[in-house]
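Ligand: NDP. Inputs:
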Amino acid sequence: MSVQRYAVIGHPVAHSLSPRIHAAFARQTGIGLEYAAIDAAPEDFDAALAAFAAEGGVGANITLPHKLRAAQICTYLSEAAQRAGAVNTLTRAATGWQGDNTDGVGLVRDLTERHGLDLRARRTLLIGAGGAARGVAPALLDAGIGGLYIVNRTPERADALADMLALPGRVHPRYLKDVGTLGNFDLVINATSASRGDPLQSLPTLPINLIAPRGAAVDLSYGEAAIPFLAWARSARAHDCIDGLGMLVEQAAESFQRWHKVRPETDAVYAKLRDREPILVTA
Ligand code: NDP
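Predicted complex:
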């Protein structure tokens, strides 16, 4: 039987750890597969996915900036993908691509099981309203957080995410520039890609009193991209400063389970990656 083909599609994607993670899961579970990284600019996404399917691709992880577009091309969306309006896991079916979203369950598993956080009733600030924010917001609400404030550089996208969540009493979209007027939060999550590109395009300076006593700060990115936010979080005396590496491993395990019907063990894979990607904090 030919080896099954999988890939992560993003832009940029060269530094993605997903091929390494899925290779480790495959070794652990004895499943033969190929997992490639495909770089596709936004205008090339549809063609890249079609070429991947034509070459026998049966499953793909979708990363920035394609998660919203991926949701539009699917012939079926899971409940998680529908609620997010964003897809990070594609599975090939006879009728076309089926879309799912494992980002939210990945983040919640990492925060509650690996880091031991109790999310219930935490007043939460989500910075960003792109594909990742859309994936994690429903899962955080399901995990019992308190009020969810969503701030975004482009306020219409925060409004759109809040509209989609349809919980007006619990979800509050606000302008990023007004972040200093919102009080403090038990959980602050950076779901922007601000520090991945031009250093001059970083987040505006966040107020030091944004994090409540014993509050947690989480950056969904990891490695160098997480440095500015986690350095701020340390200076703001966050009790927990957490990067996105654990979420990355957990969302990958959830995708792996959907494709191969077996859930890999994640702790050893996480520990190995953590050796390579220490939490880098300068403050
Ligand atoms: P998108 O491109 O879909 O969204 C980017 C978000 O960042 C938007 O809200 C955008 O605001 C905001 N943003 C970008 N630049 C700036 C800036 N200079 N100032 C303020 N806001 C800015 O990306 P994703 O949502 O897919 O990814 C976001 C981050 O999450 C990335 O760092 C990604 O690596 C990480 N991630 C980590 C995962 C993990 O498993 N650990 C999984 C998924 C994502 P606007 O709407 O105004 O453009």
